[in-house]
Amino acid sequence: METETDRPQSTRRRVAVIDIGTVTTRMLVADTDGATIDEVVRRTVVTHLGEGLHATGRLSDSGIDRVAVAVESFVAEAERLGAESLVAVATSAARDAENGRTLTDRIERAGVRPRIIPGATEARLSFTGATYRIDDDDVLVADLGGGSTELVFGCAHETDEGHVIDVDAARSIDVGSRRVLDMFLASDPPTSEQLDAAAAWVADEMRPFFDALRSRPRTLVTLAGTGTTLSAVKQGLVVYDPERVHLSHLSGGDVADLRARLAALPVADRREVVGMDPARADVIVAGAVILETIMALAGVDSTVVSEHDILYGLVLAEARQAQ
Length: 323
Known about the structure:
By secondary structure, the protein is an alpha/beta fold. The protein has helices spanning 53-56, 61-80, 92-96, 100-109, 119-130, 177-184, 192-211, 224-235, 242-245, 252-263, 267-270, 284-298, 310-321; strands at 2-6, 13-20, 24-32, 37-46, 85-90, 115-116, 136-144, 149-159, 162-173, 219-223, 248-251, 302-305. It has 13 helices and twelve strands. Strand 7 and strand 8 form a beta hairpin.
């Protein structure tokens, strides 16, 4: 097992980190001393970089352009806010695409060159960020992306030396909301047969990870847009409120009911559901299928939804790098 400690630094620094995913491109600017994080600003743009990737094996020019526009605005804002460093990573879609280098070259012209990180690195960064301020054993972190899902099982403890994580098992699985949508949910709304086929495939892909765990998770922490969107819809948030979403709970019944409710609607009607981010309306049902399957395989009856994710992991990693 690996152990990672975030030791406090003597001075605080302002850092900016960007995560380029299959569905969203996001930035966090934060002040950190390597042990604590104070958010300055967080931005999210739904860019659908992975749209069409399953069929072509390539990132589309339009998807790359959408990401570049978002990153250019992020870089400008980070500079205005006085960020001392700026790092960017690209994940599943960039890993899978034949033309990932085209993406990194294009984004470099927007102001920063992203690193395409392997799934294991993404999983570890997600666990580090998700367990920030969590002190518990047998924690499962599920980071549900558009192209892949990172599953990390371990423990996290607050000690005199800082936040210590002990990772027991980690895997990046090529199961994501955009991928499931493109592979299975061709109808609008999807048919029950399509939903059943998607759920069966997701379970087959994920079951080996759960079968190999030394024990069952006590706590499931869900990251990314599927969890936060389902929480916002459950709460009926007319305006998204991260403070109400962070550390909210979704029961297994909640997820099943929301999946059924949203799957019964065509995308155009889903966009009008209170709490729904309209740009996520097409992928949310696939995401709910994935989350429902994870909860069943993990044997848990609820999940904690967290706003602390890979962006927090990147901030802490950048702080350590500067030590």
